[in-house]
Amino acid sequence: MLLLILFAVLAVAGAIGTVRIVWTDGYRRIPTDRTRLP
């Protein structure tokens, strides 16, 4: 049970990390959208 929870946490962290990398990459690539993003 504990291993399952740990795996889920790692999967969520990996997904968030991937989304963050993609988001920052697009954020850097499109400077015109910077005012629209938080």
The percent range for helix content is over 70%
Spans of 5+ residues with little confidence (pLDDT < 50)?
Answer: none
Strand/helix succession: H
Mean pLDDT: 80
End-to-end Cα distance, whole Å, is 38 Å
Radius of gyration: 15 Å
- Give the overall form: rod-shaped
What oligomeric state best describes the polypeptide chains here?
single chain
Count of discrete alpha- or pi-helical segments spanning 4 or more residues: 1
Structural class: mainly alpha
Count of beta strands: 0
Give the SSE map.
Blueprint: H1 2-29
Structure, described:
- It is a single chain.
- The protein is 74% helix and 0% strand.
- The protein is an all-alpha fold.
- The model has no long low-confidence stretch (mean pLDDT 80).
- The chain is rod-shaped and about 45 Å long.
Q: Could you list some keywords that capture this structure?
A:
38 residues; mainly alpha; 1 helix
Question: What's this model, at a glance?
Answer:
This protein has 38 residues and is mostly helical. Helices cover 74% and strands 0% of the residues. It has one helix and no strands.
